[in-house]
Amino acid sequence: MNYMELLFGAILGWLITRLASYFSKPKLTFKIDNGQLFQNGVGQYRFLSIRIINKPNNLFFKLISFLFGKTNLNNAKAQINFSLPENSKFTIKTINNGRWATTKEPVDYSTGKVDYSQILMPSRDSIFVEEEGMVNIAIKKEDDKSFYAFNNESYDSRWWPLKPEFEINEKYLVVTLKLLADGDSYDFQCALVNSNKKLNNFYLKLL
């Protein structure tokens, strides 16, 4: 075996390893969730969220998953960017520690008090194959003009659930959800509509 054959074999082996690594990554499907309403003593609110399903959503990736296997999304962190539609690179608000709605709230359920140690911890979640998770994006109170980004910090009893620093007063924005896990990044973009004070006109939609 000469030098060129050894070099070709090394390059081919590296390429196969890289392709196997790429195609065995989790194949995620993102879906908008506008359906969460809740009431407390001061009014009615709507949550906007994004669901993440660890399952390929087209025939090509289903075939790839069959050939290379399926993997879990491990210990993922969520980052949320709110930007103007005319310049999606210009971010007006970034939430570096997005809240996984599929994890425990930072509350001691036995006492009803906020657990501040959990508020300070990064919210992370794992999504097993064929299962799903959900990330909260924003919240709005009925008859308010503004809406608010939402994460574990929103549970602080000083402002629950509307943290003042998270206030956004825009009628139309681009939302970018970025999941960081196992050294990889998975991005999803959609639009957020906030056309007036009513909760029916506060929703996410596909771009």
- The number of E-state strands comes to 13
Written as H for each helix and E for each strand, in order along the chain, the element string is: HEEHEEEEHEEEEEEE
Percent helix, as a range, is 10-25%
Q: Name the average pLDDT.
A: 86
Going by CATH, the architecture would be: Sandwich
Distance between the termini: 55 Å
What count of helical segments does DSSP give?
Answer: 3
**Overall SS class:** alpha+beta
Kindly give the count of domains. 1
Beta-strand fraction estimate: over 45%
CATH superfamily: Immunoglobulins
> How would a textbook summarize the main sheet?
6 strands, antiparallel
The first-level CATH class name:
Mainly Beta
Radius of gyration equals: 21 Å
Which blocks of ≥5 consecutive residues have pLDDT under 50?
none
Inertia-based shape: globular
> What is the CATH fold-level name?
Immunoglobulin-like
Task: Walk me through what this model shows.
There is one protein chain. The chain has 207 residues and is an alpha+beta fold. It has one domain: Immunoglobulins (Immunoglobulin-like), CATH 2.60.40. The strands form 3 sheets. Strands 3, 4, 7, 11, 12 and 13 form a 6-stranded antiparallel β-sheet that branches. A 5-stranded antiparallel β-sheet has the order 1-2-8-9-10, with no helix packed on it. β5 and β6 form a beta hairpin. The N and C termini lie far apart (55 Å).
